[in-house]
Amino acid sequence: MTIGISTPLPAYKVNAAFMASKAELLGFESIWYAEHPVLPVNTTSRFPGSEDGVIPWTYSHFADPFIALAQASGATSKIKLATGITLVPERNPLVLAKTVSTLDLFSGGRFIFGIGTGWLREETELMGGDFDHRWTQTKESLLALKELWTKDEAEFHGKYYDFPPVRMFPKPAQNPHPPILIGGMAKNVLRRIVEVGDGWLPNRVTPRDVETSRHELDSLAKDYGRNPNEITITIYG
User: Where is the Luciferase-like domain (predicted)?
Assistant: First the structure.
């Protein structure tokens, strides 16, 4: 078992380079940054992390995770750099592919791509995402990203993203790409992981939940012809 550290909020009040270098010195395996580019003032969505459903004011104070991790990268040499999570439906995959590959390259292959679909409808829609079909959009984006990361000339033709042959360099340092950890507790999340991901990134789960899910992941991995040992579980909280 390895242990990482998540940044406190408001994130901009903590120097990312200092935080990461100190965490590396203390032996932490990874450092994680979350993402919310904006927080709409008027919402009806309930925050899933509390009984009253009130969205914490700190959620409007998230630093951009990729810029924070880039700063952390320059001050460290071993600690892994992770997003927990990147809101994939809110980012264009052509830009996201470049961002991820550049960070992974400059950090020496230390990036972990924690991703999710989002829970805040108003934010997702404001940023151009299809909230009601956000997993379908996310899966399409991940498939497009993999094309861009692994091919010298990549193209993709889908419902949400459609682009002709393009060249996108640099490629990630990790081959074929940084590990994709999929967050969430949706009914089909484990199947989604073995289809297009490399690990599960849940929060607020019990040891029994983890044990049961581990067995299910192992079984699904075998069904999909994947090595169960390559599918990870990372508890995020």
Answer: 19-236
The yes-or-no verdict on residue 163 having pLDDT over 80 is yes
- 5-178, CATH topology level: TIM Barrel (3.20.20)
Residue 14 has pLDDT above 90, yes or no: no
| pLDDT score of 11 more than 80 | no
Instruction: Give rounded-to-5 percent helix, strand, coil for the chain.
Output: 40, 15, 45
DSSP assignments along 90-147, one per residue: GS-HHHHHHHHHHHHHHTTS-EEEEEE--S-HHHHHHTT--GGGHHHHHHHHHHHHHH
Q: What is the pLDDT of residues 116-149, one digit of tens each?
A: 999 999 999 999 999 999 999 999 999 999 999 9
Closest listed residue to residue 99, CA positions, set 181, 178, 21: 178
What's the Cα-to-Cα distance from 61 to each of 21, 68, 69, 115, rounded to whole Å?
22, 13, 16, 19
For the chain, what are the domain ranges?
5-178
Q: What does pTM read for this prediction?
A: 0.97
